[in-house]
């Protein structure tokens, strides 16, 4: 079955599941995987995230719709360990494709059956993110002690770096947060130091850069193989 025909069939399934779910019919006959995809597709947080990432409601909704169609075409959904994270990864890639007008994703490449033990790149990233997040939460006190006292209120500064690190690792389960979002979280978490009124821009930029460095050092402490520059 060609992609165009599969896309049409899945679209009909999506409308059918929506109808049965909206009426509270638990006897719809659709697979648990499709039902879970529908719940993720309609989740307000996922919708908000997609629209914000796309910069428009239309592109965000289109990306979510495309992600649903692609995942619903998966021949072996059992190999997807975290459906929500995988869904967001595909949705973000589809939104990026629409924004940059690059070639569309081939569903066959995404759903291709792999040999036992061969883990997809997205699955590997998900596992790494989960392990990093777990380590941060297990060693919170030790990590706080590694953050330099780089402001008039060291306790608040350290708590901010730890909080943003935790959020960044949590967001990584859904393909990450942008540098602009990271900077906004740092500034809003401690505006008196990182975004004070009347402070020269060069001073604010230096403080923000230093905060990102401290954040990255914490992430490297959590995992020496941390590969992203903030």
Number of domains: 2
Please, how many helices? 12
| Helical residues, percent | over 70%
Q: Which range does the strand content fall in?
A: under 5%
Q: Main sheet? A: none
**Class from secondary-structure proportions:** mainly alpha
Shape: globular
Radius of gyration of CA atoms, rounded to a whole number: 21 Å
Report the mean per-residue pLDDT as an integer. 76
| Through-space gap between termini | 44 Å
Name the poorly predicted regions.
1-11, 21-29, 102-107, 109-119
Order of helices and strands: HHHHHHHHHHHH
Counting DSSP E segments of at least 2 residues, the number of strands comes to 0
Structural write-up:
With 230 residues, the protein is mostly helical. Helices cover 70% and strands 0% of the residues. The chain contains 12 helices and no strands. Helix 8 (140-146) crosses helix 9. The longest helix has 22 residues, at 201-222. The N and C termini lie far apart (44 Å).
For the structure shown, list the relevant keywords:
230 residues, mainly alpha
What's the gist of this structure?
The chain has helices at 3-22, 32-42, 44-54, 57-72, 83-100, 107-111, 121-138, 140-146, 154-172, 179-189, 191-194, 201-222. The longest helix has 22 residues, at 201-222. Helix content is 70%, strand content 0%.
């Amino acid at each position: 079955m060609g992609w165009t025909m599969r896309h049409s069939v899945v679209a009909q399934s999506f409308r059918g599941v929506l109808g049965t779910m909206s009426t509270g019919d638990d006897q719809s006959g659709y697979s648990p995987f499709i039902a879970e995809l529908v719940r993720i597709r309609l989740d307000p947080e996922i919708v908000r995230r997609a629209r914000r990432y796309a910069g428009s409601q239309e592109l965000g909704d289109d990306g979510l719709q495309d992600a649903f169609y692609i995942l619903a075409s998966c021949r072996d959904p059992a190999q997807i360990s975290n459906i929500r994270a995988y869904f967001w990864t595909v949705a973000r890639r589809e939104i990026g494709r629409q924004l940059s007008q690059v070639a569309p994703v081939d569903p066959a490449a995404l759903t291709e059956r792999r040999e036992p033990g061969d883990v997809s790149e997205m699955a590997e990233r998900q596992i790494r993110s989960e392990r990093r997040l777990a380590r941060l939460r297990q060693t919170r006190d030790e990590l706080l002690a590694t953050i330099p006292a780089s402001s008039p209120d060291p306790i608040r500064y350290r708590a901010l770096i730890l909080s943003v690190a935790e959020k960044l690792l949590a967001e990584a389960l859904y393909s990450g947060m942008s540098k602009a979002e990271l900077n906004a979280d740092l500034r809003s978490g401690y505006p008196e130091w990182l975004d004070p009124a009347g402070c020269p821009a060069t001073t604010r930029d230096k403080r923000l850069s230093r905060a990102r460095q401290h954040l990255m050092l914490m992430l490297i402490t959590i995992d020496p193989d941390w590969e992203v520059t903030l």
